[in-house]
């Protein structure tokens, strides 16, 4: 068991997205004590699933830290979730009767930005299951993109998967050229005709489509013209996101997400030159958000108390 001091405040950072939910427990000395990973946590695709993934990832992090389950109620949680940039979803999650000592909720874009720049100002391009750009400069946040799959998220894994499926269906109908990509997507889906493709992918979530990004990228790297066209189109959009963020003059720009390393060589050269490695993971950014929020809350409380004391003394 980890020995805890009475004065310790334990934080848990929880980063929830369309594919997974990752939680890390951090102590007062910024040591990561334990980490847990559970399923998707985007309330747009299911409130119950999101709650379950948050609680499961936290429980797994506690177990990894060798802390008893009841420690859950002692944790100060920073939670960064996909989808909560929509006010309805934010309010829904904020009203959850959570099991933590305190919970501070923000978007996954903001927490990822704080993580990438160790709590400071900067900008991030997120390229994973979904995509978006986000900047935090001088206390102001700016989101570019992030409109969700299938309406937005261009350049993301889900978008690439969707584009690949659209192409394959056209190729199966004889309306598009055959390519290596067609065979690789059919193999990945274990499908042979259009009906089987639809049965495997129709109505599925963004994370299901994102799994097809791997064959798209691999075929593009091998020079397949159809895959190259898809990846170039997505990378051009991501480069445009970066340019829009750079207009805000952030001190640092990072790219994060599962697709980021594979997409980087396809970006505009001037964007690649500006990219800096993220300093910490998104779930640690959630911890920074919780720490900053708790400090602000304490400061506000002190201000109210001091104002009340002044009135009591001087009327």
UniProtKB/TrEMBL annotation:
Keywords for this entry?
Kinase, Transferase
For this protein, the record's InterPro entries field holds: ATPase_BadF (IPR002731), ATPase_NBD (IPR043129), Euk-type_GlcNAc_Kinase (IPR052519)
MF GO annotations:
kinase activity
Extract the CDD domains matched here. ASKHA_NBD_GspK-like (cd24082)
Looking at the record, the residues that make up the ATPase BadF/BadG/BcrA/BcrD type domain are 12-271
According to the record, the segments passing through the membrane are none
Keyword set includes Membrane: no
Keyword Disulfide bond belongs to the record: no
Check the record and name the NCBIfam families matching this protein: NagK_SO3507
Q: What is this protein called?
A: Glucosamine kinase
Say which species the protein is native to: Microbulbifer marinus
The organism's lineage is: Bacteria, Pseudomonadati, Pseudomonadota, Gammaproteobacteria, Cellvibrionales
């Amino acid at each position: 068991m980890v020995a805890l001091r009475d004065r310790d405040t334990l934080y848990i950072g929880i980063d929830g997205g369309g594919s997974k939910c990752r939680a890390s427990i951090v102590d007062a000395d910024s040591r990561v004590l334990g980490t847990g990973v559970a399923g998707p946590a985007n309330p747009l695709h299911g409130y119950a699933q999101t709650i379950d993934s948050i609680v499961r990832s936290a429980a797994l992090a506690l177990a990894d830290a060798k802390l008893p389950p009841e420690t859950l109620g002692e944790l100060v949680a920073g939670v960064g979730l996909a989808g909560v940039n929509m006010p309805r979803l934010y309010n829904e999650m904020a009203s959850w009767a959570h099991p933590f000592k305190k919970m501070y909720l923000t978007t996954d874009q903001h927490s990822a930005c704080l993580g990438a720049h160790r709590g400071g100002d900067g900008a991030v391009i997120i390229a994973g299951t979904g995509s978006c750009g986000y900047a935090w400069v001088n206390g102001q946040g700016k989101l570019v993109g992030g409109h969700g799959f299938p309406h937005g998220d261009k350049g993301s894994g889900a978008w690439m998967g969707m584009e690949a499926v659209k192409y394959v269906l056209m190729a199966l109908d004889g309306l598009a050229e055959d390519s290596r990509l067609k065979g690789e997507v059919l193999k990945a889906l274990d499908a042979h005709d259009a009906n089987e493709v639809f049965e495997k992918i129709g109505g599925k979530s963004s994370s299901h489509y994102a799994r097809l990004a791997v064959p798209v990228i691999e075929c593009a790297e091998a020079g397949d013209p159809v895959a190259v066209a898809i990846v170039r189109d997505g990378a051009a959009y991501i480069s445009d996101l970066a340019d829009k963020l750079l207009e805000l003059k952030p001190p640092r720009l990072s790219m994060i997400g599962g697709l980021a390393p594979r997409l980087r060589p396809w970006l505009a050269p001037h964007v690649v030159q500006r990219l800096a490695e993220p300093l910490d993971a998104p779930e640690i950014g959630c911890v920074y958000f919780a720490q900053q929020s708790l400090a602000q809350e304490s400061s506000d409380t002190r201000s109210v108390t001091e104002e009340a004391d002044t009135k009591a003394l001087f009327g």
